[in-house]
Structures are given as structure tokens and as C-alpha cells.
RNA sequence: GGGGGUAUAGCUCAGUUGGAUAGAGCAACGGCCUUCUAAGCCGUGGGUCGAGGGUUCGAAUCCUUCUACCCCCGCCA
């Protein structure tokens, strides 16, 4: 719609230039905005304001000439000049109502686009190390990351989702020692308990399963417990598999899927880490100091240089990170998005610096990052910190068990990633209009309920009759809904471009509000069949858009509540 | 001390990338169920957009200085 109005203006500008009213050397960027106030029409352009200076004319005069030069169009009912020189477009009923037909014809794909042109994009998110259950912060990463994947897929990108984890480093040794201690019957309060060992109850569960010879089938790990407390390597392998399976269950309960699980250890096995070191040294960006090998990341914008190889010969996490991203690049991903907690912010400059130092023709801003701020959990007005299972943090599973998957996902994705998030358990649990998840789902269920009611009356909805009678939708509530529905494709495209899924959540709340207001003001199942079918068409369009929007957030659209 | 983030109604947060009189929900107050699900609707009140300066036709939005809070600043990940 914006595009079509833009073309009308463009033609009017050419006319004015031809008439000599405007200089020929102008190159205006035609901007069309949705109006905030419906008394300003449906769409507005500031073109006269932006051209006023270069044309040396008062903006309102310019606007008047532009309006006069606009070619007639069935889309536009009339135009007005307002304020300092805005041109307001009042669209015709036909053009506003056409959206209903578009939605019903396109169904689940309405709102989708081909903007990505099938290009590949890889999204890495969660990437938790297998040292314990996923916590709320991982949950936010999962909700945002998965929703980004859905948004990018809906806008024409070919998306690969990936989960990267360290299965071998110092933290995993610590995990193995903790499980081994439990196998030996120790508890965290014993003197012999490993220093900095993991104290959560889940460690005991891992030990029990290991000693019982249990078999673990995770997405990417398959191990049987050796039942030998002294075999630390077997304990380690088992613990990693066990906790990966736990995380799989967490992610499954959260309806989050990954195309690939990438192991840090594979970078050592394939020689990618060594190769990366060789290239960095060969490119002259390294030096040795105090027995360690440093990368001069300050050459690439870092505030200090970083150690790559420790004095003891082991690598810091930083180096495999660079090797991993080189691997992504070599796999052909020209676009990569990493979704991480903001506490890992310092890795952004570092990884990019490492990639530049490779001199592999990787663009400076590659990869992209989406960083989410911290999550705190509140209950009864107080911060919740301790989980029995995990010991020191609130697990994602606890939340899903308590408030449900839909509410958990919605709340974690409904705020901009850069805002700190307070997860209010009482609010997420409340079954009232306090709770936006149910508010939106209820709108969807209400439409389904109307359709059921119609069937109970022995009637059925005739879509063709409804679409042919759309001009009967003349109530203000109906016009507001039409305007709202028309915006959905822009909202999806915008959320995908800015990598901000919360825009979809906000839109759905507004759409549901418009629908509930209409529902209460006007009955759908009226005697007049043409009006009834038209209202059913509008209802069905609302239902479809809510379903499509909720799907982008990974939230279900129930047919009844 | 350095880097990043945030600051908008009593609370939680939006604000279409610089547009017209800054919005929503909650909380407060007052209404609406014999009528398609009241997990709903209607109405009222509520603001120095953290503070100062700047850019311009026009700023919550861009630049600058300052203040407060959060995160990071390890040869941990």
C-alpha cells in the first residue's frame, strides 16, 4: 500500500518538475508514514516539508500543488493538507477492505515475504555448556533466538540454527570431579568435596545414573554409564551426555529446535585450532610474553591484547571461538547472527578482532550480535534466586513447569533484548486480563468459538459471500481492525530487519485489543447473512493473523481456553 | 578508571528509526454478564520523556556534557 502511494507521489513530482514548479535536480526520498490519529487519514507524507527548502517554497503551497498533480487512483478517497504541510491520504473503503481477502487467500503465509531471497543465514543461540540445567537467562536466549529464526525464515531467509558448546575444558573437568565425588558418596559440605565443585542436586542424579549403568540418548550424545567411580574420563563423557540430554528436554519443553550441535572438541580433533594459531602467527599479529602467546587484538579495536595460548600450553576459550567462527565462514555463511547474554559482551570485539587478524577477507562487522540483558525472577514482589535443583539459579524447567511454555516464551520475548527483564511469576500465572499471553490467545479462541456457535446453529460460513460483502464493514471498530491487519506484514518485516521479535508481541497485543473491543460492541452472528458473512470474514482474518504472529513467537494458538 | 547497556505515568514497558496533541497494560476510581466464552468491554484521573547544552521547519528519538542503576574488564566460559 505504501509502495503504491509512493508511486502516485512520484508521478506528481515529475509533473511539477515538467511544469517548472520544481527544480529538476531534486532527488527526494519519498517517505510514507502510518498516521497515529485517524483524523489524519490512513497514510501521510512529509514530502512537501522536506522539499520546501530546496524548492524555496512554503511547504503548504508545495503540498497543495502536489495534491493537485496527483493522478487519480481508486485507492485514494481524498487527500488533505494538514499541520505544517503534511499530505494526508484517506484511503478508499475498497483498498482498506482488500486486506481481508489477502489474508484469507494467503492463510498461514500472510505476512511473510521474500526479502531474504533465499540467502543463507546462521543463527547461533543458547550455546550453554553442559554443566547444569538451563537457567532463565538461557531461556531468554532460546526464546529470542528461536523467534529470530522464525522471523528470518518468514522473510525469505534460509536459516540454520546452531548450538555450540564446550565439552572438554576446565569447567567440564570440574563437572567430572563433582560427579565423581558424588559417586564416592561425598556431599558438597564434606571436606574432600572438590574446590569450586558444582553443588546442585542434579550432580547427585548424574552420579546415581552413572553408577546404575544407565544409557543416555541425547540429540548428539549417546553413552552408557561405566559404573566405575575411578574412571574419570568415563565419568566426564557420561556427565556431558547426561546434561546435554537434560538440556534437550528443557529445549523440547520450550519448543526450540536446533539444526546442528557443534562441539568445541571437534575443533581440536580436526586440527582447526592449530591451523588458526598457525595463521595468526604467520600473519604477524602475535607475540610471546611471560611464556604465553598473545594476539595483538588492540590492532583491531580491542582495549587490550589477549592471551591465546596459556603458559601451561592450553588454549584460552578465545582461540577456539575464533576457530569456530572461521569454520562458520568456511561453511559459506555470509551472514551469521549470534544471540548471547550481554555478560559475554566482551567477546564481540575479541572474536571480530581474531577474525580480522586471520586476513581471510571476512567483513569487519561479521558476525552480527544480538545481546540480551539480564533476567531477574520475581515472586510475591521478591527476587527469586535459588533453585533446589540447580543450587544457585532459577532453572528454565522450573519456570515452564510452573507457568507453562506459552507464558514463559511470551514473557521472555516480549521485551526488547537490550532491556533488563523482570520475570514476574505471579503475573505470568494470573488468568486475567493482566496477562497479555492469554489476552492474545483468548482473541484467537473467541473467533473459533464463534465458528463453533455458528455450526451449532446448523449454519456455515460462506467465505465467498463474506468477501463479496466486505463493503458492509462500516463500523469504526471494523475500520480500526482493517487498519491494524494491514500493518502486519510491515511489522514482521521490521522485526526481522531490526532483529527485535518483541515488536510482534506488541502488535499482537494491540490487535487482540482491537478485536475484543469490536466483539463487545457488535454481534457477529446477526440475522443479515451478508453482514454476518462479512464479519465472519473479518473475524477469520483476525484469527489467521494472530495465529501467524503467535507462531513467530513460538506460542500456541488454542481453539478454546 | 575503561568498555557496553538502560533511564518515558505510582509499577511493568511500547514508541513505526527525525513528524502532527508522547501511548498500552497493571495499580486507583466508576460502570457493563437472561444476548457469539466477563481470561472480555466502556469511562475517569495520572507526564519537566533522568538533567543541561546543541543540530532544524520539527527531537523521547541525532550530537555533546553530566547524573543514577545493571553487565563486563581472568593465562575462566
UniProtKB/TrEMBL annotation:
It comes from the Bacteria. Residues 440-561 form the DALR anticodon binding domain. Keywords: Aminoacyl-tRNA synthetase, ATP-binding, Cytoplasm, Ligase, Nucleotide-binding, Protein biosynthesis. It catalyses: tRNA(Arg) + L-arginine + ATP = L-arginyl-tRNA(Arg) + AMP + diphosphate. It is found in: Cytoplasm. One of its GO terms (cellular component) is cytoplasm. GO terms for molecular function: arginine-tRNA ligase activity; ATP binding. Belongs to the class-I aminoacyl-tRNA synthetase family. Monomer. This is Arginine--tRNA ligase. It comes from Pseudohalioglobus sediminis. The gene is argS.
